């Protein structure tokens, strides 16, 4: 049976570059792997009362089950104010609870950060890395995946037009598969 790697983009935006990168990455799954895009659109902001008072939103139940069923995760994050966008942090929080029942535990992960600017989401990349340590998710250290000037890599229709970026992504995906096999 194929191993299932979740692709989680930290943006809700329809024309999100992170989502576009996610779709390119999805097409790079090697034999024996399925890359599955996990949307974050339906997750209300985490409120511990939901869990403490048995009022868990149905979308949380579905999301937690979806994450639990994954074998690994590729996070594709933009940067908001030098950190992880709230929507992605919220997703981490939702599936990390209730206490002691985190759905993330032990799943190998990769972090691909991006920005239309020059700094490539460095701050978001490393803030996310910090959360993954606590969530007990081994995160690929090398290659680091920083993608700058990302808006130039796609045409109007959302196709990746920079072959250098595509090759860079393919090498990162291949490295992650090797990392996954050592850490699963
Ligand atoms: C941004 N943006 C941004 N970019 C960056 O490189 N560093 C940053 O700290 C920020 N901060 C920031 C805050 C907020 C609230 C917004 C809305 C945007 C710009 C951001 O990189 C750009 O909007 C991306 O296109 C967002 O990613 P998606 O939606 O294209 O995946």
From TrEMBL:
**A single MF term (Gene Ontology):** FMN binding
Matching Gene3D superfamilies: 3.40.50.360
Highest taxon of the lineage: Bacteria
Q: Per the database record, which ranges form the NADPH-dependent FMN reductase-like domain? A: 5-149
Name it: Chromate reductase
Q: Which Pfam families match?
A: FMN_red
The cross-references to PANTHER family, in alphabetical order and at most eight, read: CHROMATE REDUCTASE, NAD(P)H-DEPENDENT FMN REDUCTASE LOT6
Alphabetical GO CC annotations of the entry are: cytosol
């Amino acid at each position: 049976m194929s191993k299932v790697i979740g692709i989680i983009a930290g943006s809700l935006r329809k024309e999100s570059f992170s989502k576009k990168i996610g779709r390119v990455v999805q097409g790079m799954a090697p034999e024996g792997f399925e890359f599955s895009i996990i949307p974050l659109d339906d997750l209300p902001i985490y409120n511990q009362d939901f869990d403490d008072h048995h009022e868990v939103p149905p979308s949380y139940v579905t999301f937690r089950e979806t994450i639990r069923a994954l074998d690994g995760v590729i996070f594709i994050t933009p940067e908001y104010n030098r950190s992880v966008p709230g929507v992605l942090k919220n997703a981490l929080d939702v599936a990390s609870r209730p206490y002691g029942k985190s759905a993330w535990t032990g799943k190998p992960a990769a972090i691909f950060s991006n920005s239309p600017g020059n700094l490539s989401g460095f701050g978001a990349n490393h803030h996310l890395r910090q959360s993954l340590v606590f969530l007990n998710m081994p995160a690929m250290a090398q290659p680091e995946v920083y993608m700058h000037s990302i808006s130039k890599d796609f045409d109007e229709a959302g196709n990746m037009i920079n072959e250098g970026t595509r090759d860079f992504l393919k090498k990162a995906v291949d490295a992650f598969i090797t990392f996954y096999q050592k850490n699963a």
